[in-house]
Specification:
The complex is a heterotrimer of chains A (332), B (250) and C (287). Chain B has 250 residues and is an alpha/beta fold. Chain B is 36% helix and 23% strand. In chain B, strands 7-8-9-4-10-11 form a six-stranded mixed beta sheet, sandwiched between helices. Helix content of chain C is 72%, strand content 3%. The chains are: A mainly alpha (332), B alpha/beta (250), C mainly alpha (287).
Chain lengths: 332, 250, 287
Amino acid sequence: MSDITLDLARIMVVNRARWTTIEVAFWIAAAAGYFLFPAKLVLLTQMLIGGLFAMSLDLLLGYGGIASFGHAAFFGLGAYAAGLLAAHGWGEPLSGVLFGGLAAGGLGLAFSSVIAKVRGAAVLMVTLCIGLLLFEAASRMPWLTGGDTGLQGIDMWPLLGLFEFDLFGRTAFWYAYAVAFLLYLAARRYIHSPEGLALKGIRENHDRVPMLGVSTARRKMIAFTISATIAGMAGALLAQTTQIVALETLSFERSVAALIMLTVGGLGTLIGGFIGAATFIWARDVLSALNPVYWMFWLGLILIALMLTARGGLVGALTLLTNYLARERHPR
Amino acid sequence: MTAPALETKALCKQFGALKVTNEVSLRLKAGGRQALIGPNGAGKSTLINLLTGVLAPSSGSILLEGAPINRLTTDQRVALGLGRTFQINALFPHLSPLESIMLAVARRNGRLGRPLQALHRETDTTDEAFALACSVGLGRDCLRPTAELAYGRQRLLEIALALAGRPRVLLLDEPAAGVPASESFELMQAIEALPRDVAILFIEHDMDLVFRFAETITVLVAGTVLCEGTPGEIAGDSEVRRVYLGVAGG
Amino acid sequence: MLGFVNILLGGIAYGFVLFLMAGGLSITLGLMGFANMAHAALAMVGGYTAALLIGKAGWPFLAAVVMAGLTAALTGAILERTLFRRLYQASELEQVLLTIGVVYAAIAAATYLVGPEQMAIAVPAWLDGNLRIGPVDLNRYRLFLIVTGLVLLVSLVGLIEHTTFGAKIRAAVFNRRMTASCGIDVDKLYALAFALGSALAGIGGALSVKLLGLDPNFPIKFLTELLIVVSVGGLGSLRGTFLAAMLFGIIDVVGKYLLPEIGAFIIYATALALLTVRPQGLVGRPR
């Protein structure tokens, strides 16, 4: 066995943070989608937004092992915050996204100390309650949120003062693409920072981390706040690109959908959220077109089959494939 | 006269009516090598858990280099210079030893709390962690997932992780437990090579290791300190022979 | 004042329905460590069974309720044997997703087979209207719910805490391998416990139709309520589940009466506050 040198150790550490084939392929494919499916831009935009939301959950669940059952609370809050801002006379998109992220991040920060304190099933239940609470609050304040009919009258100004949001969703697509990509870069930085390493430590062995002098409570508070902020920005994007905010953005079903997308795509991979969301939203589009009941039925069956057979999701399967191809190309 | 590295004053821990730790007063002097021995159930691990803040004491106080640390959380105590290894390996199975050590090093160098800081750009963290891995003899295994390492090699990582915090006081909970003879040599070497200015309190059942390594020995029985002395004094103590060595030795 | 007595009675009755539905979940989640999100779907099976037997086949009410319990128990046992048992050792998240798959499939199946509209249930004359006790008119159906709930509560606590069956369950949960090595068929035990929990859910579902109505979205609408009841009560504690069910039943009904404009908000806020202060639940030790 050959000895490991300092240079090799350094290279391995750098390699950990390198882009994988799957990541590069996804972002190229997403951009290519604009040219390949010009009639489906609205759907593609939804995929990017759904992916961003699933990725925010991945930071918590896939990296920190902190499951959330009510993450839609932050998505929906971001959507309503950005929507209300635009409906009340400030339609500038970028500051709207920041505002949505700030609102959701603020709520996340407020609850983060509770999340940091509880463990196991109680985390699921606390997040579930936060989600239900926000949904109920929004549905009981129709004067503010529009209630069941949704928040309307969202009027967006041109992006950067240059690009009007057009009827075909071209501006909306590139806008969502750019924001999602930037936040993806930020999330990558986060998981490859010392802070991200600490988060993985918490996932691997929660009780051991304090003995390294690392406060788990602080790590979890930071992770929860960051995740909530990104979820809120994803919600804000949805509000701005569809120019309506429905109560459904806050619903339990949406929280569950994010969990499903993430599991389908692959937990703890970051890109898995995007791939899972694209798959989920595409399947929903195709199957709901046949009959909405079919979609639910198939979704149920697929989930059951997935849990009984494959773990690791699509990214897991794709990684096996790319590793195999790499070995074929460089036979040892 | 400088304050002891670690001191407890009348430390008590009760679970219901059961007194697991009873009026324990210990003094570990700076740079000292002290062994904590006692039969199973004497409350040795409970004592370590009290010292590290995993358990809260019912009464009494704990001082680290003269400063009370009773009310501090585990991570705060570690930041002040307390280190510990676990009796049963408690590691991060999917992280490599290098990454695990890097986490401890990054914390000590104040690199946490900045989520956009790239870890791989901080070569000093990598370098220091690698040097530490090599110093305990983990150089060749430091890039594999920890779960793949042999048990004895994982014990070395336990020690490296404790050292990464540059502790002033190190608590070793049965460092040689479960290590096969073939690997124990490396482990002994690593322990022997620990810096001289680090005070060490260690729990051990292997009497060879205790008598070879300790300057002072504290005997704990049923949560109470039975006696304390040099290895020579302890070996000659008839009471200790009766309750402990007589049972374990032979 | 007299109106308020009936409101309170309604709250207690709702509490008992919640307890019946959540009791089984408390057993599977708390004792067996299996996160069964499909529990409310089993209640729905009970609800539809009773409603259809009474409405289409003309069965008497009580017989239909018993049949609802049996059907739910059988469905639960089949699900446990074919699907759930494969994931006893898996992570909580995988259990959650598997059983949510069952929920979705159940919602779709119910929509397809019965239709999306609300289901009504007819109760016999002796359960309809009010019963006059002294100066108060008490709703007969609510009284019936309370009496039935009490009987089932007492038998259930007795079964889990004072019979060998209960002792075996608790032993198997504590140490599965050790229990198996004592010659106890743990597999069968789990299936039985699961069927028992499902039967309770089925009965609860059947009894709830008059109170809550029934449509295919029932499994997801009440899943969250049941989860809250079980976790606020304390995982694995039937007493805790009962306490929490009563608390939420009363707060919900009374709260919606006194402050209709804030609706269910008050329940979720209470649950969140309780979970923050006592994450281990009302009854339950800190872990």
